[in-house]
Amino acid sequence: MKDVSLKKALLTVFITLLVxxxxxxxxxxxxxxxxxxxxxxxxxxxxxxxxxxxxxDLTVKVTKGxxxxxxxxxxxxxxxxxxxxxxxxxxxxxxxxxxxYRTMYKDLCYPIAKVSRNYIxxxxxxxxxxVRKIPSSVxxxxxxxxxxxxLEKNYPRIVFMVKKMYFSLPFLAVxxxxxxxxxxxxWYAFVLKLxxxxxxxxxxxxxxxxxxxxxxxxxxxxxxxxxIMLVLxxxxxxxxxxxxxxxGTIFIVLGSVIYLDKGNNQSWVKNKE
Length: 273
What we know:
By secondary structure, the chain is an alpha+beta fold. The protein has helices spanning 6-29, 32-53, 96-99, 144-195, 206-236, 247-263; strands at 60-63, 66-69, 75-80, 85-89, 110-115, 119-125, 128-133, 140-142.
């Protein structure tokens, strides 16, 4: 069995990720046809909302950060009639707006955000709210006509940006995954170095340990995230998560030990002489 240099191991891991992850991205995680359907549905839903649901007589103005609505306050701009989710406009925010964030105005709607003259209140997480002052630099008029114009004008640019992100994201993710693996593999190499003290290759160097665990880590990564969590989960129709403590460490280190022991590869052993 030939020795594998660290350079070859790094190259093997990177090329494998560069080939496999984009294929998985475009075929399984977010298939191309699903992505294009999403883009088309986004325009149709936005166009349908503007034409059929946004009130034709509603105008929201923001002048130097001050909000005004041509409706009697409080007023709710309904976003979804079925769930009664909307954006609530009111004169000012009070303490009870935090306590009864979704239920205070349930007769009008269940607001995902509350807008006063100068502030916006929205929920970040369950019972965690954020209040932001509207910058004085904001000047905008929102109406049925302005929304339709903005949609027609900005949709092609939005589609271009989203497509650019969609097709570049998996390749950018490869670099993130690769460097994350390099950092995490320091732990696996350290554990293998400790375990190696009780084996026939006890004088293996840290660099050699890092090299062999990196290749084992690649196998584990493919097995866990692609084989189990993606392929098998979809076949069984349920999400499968491998959460056994130190399962990754056990798999990688044990695999590395078997690899070294089976090959009886003396090139991994530091020459005592």
